[in-house]
Amino acid sequence: MDIAQRLQVVHERLRAAEHRFGRDPGSVKLLAVSKTQPVSAIRAALAAGQHAFGENYLQEALDKQQALADTPAEWHFIGALQSNKTREVAGHFDWCHTVDRLKIARRLSQQRPEERPPLNVCIQVNISGEASKAGVRPAGAAELAAQVAELPRLRLRGLMALPAPAEGLAAQRRPLAALRELQEHLVSSGLALDTLSMGMSGDLEAAVAEGATLVRIGTAIFGPRQTTPANGKENKR
Question: What is the pLDDT of residues 3-16, one digit of tens each?
């Protein structure tokens, strides 16, 4: 199948999951994870109606943005975010999903250009408690969310998580339910949050069942990932 056909299959899977779990049609949006994929693949996805793309590697993403400046692509940074990357993420992306500490949020706020709308951000939560995963611990999420929500030039949209892999719908739903419950707690405390960024190809149905509003899908759209970034360069920034 080509990319347009793969996108259609993914959308059909999303709509089926929405129907199965009582979600409103179209309430779950698709973020196409285009890391390591060439510009030509992103153009094919754009031609098929996809407009939001997630990138992990900063220099690769910046090169793609330059090549696709003539398009309406919306760019989401979903990679690990260190201090030396914040200026360019703040300057060149529409969303950042991986805010997990106040220092990073403050830098993004300070470095967001005045001529651009506020940067949409999600707080990454280490919902499964994995030592190898980034993200604030659930117990610290409320304090961080309240602090981020006060920063100018940022718009706190919600939470993001990458749960540990699990087999079976019930096992997949447990950590995602915990993230949803955490977001519900934050909303009840007065934060205006509208985004749950969770779910990938393997747990899409579980994510839809537990309230995801944005799912991140890569291989099912673009096919196998390349082993190196699409621009062939090391990502040192």
Answer: 999 999 999 999 99
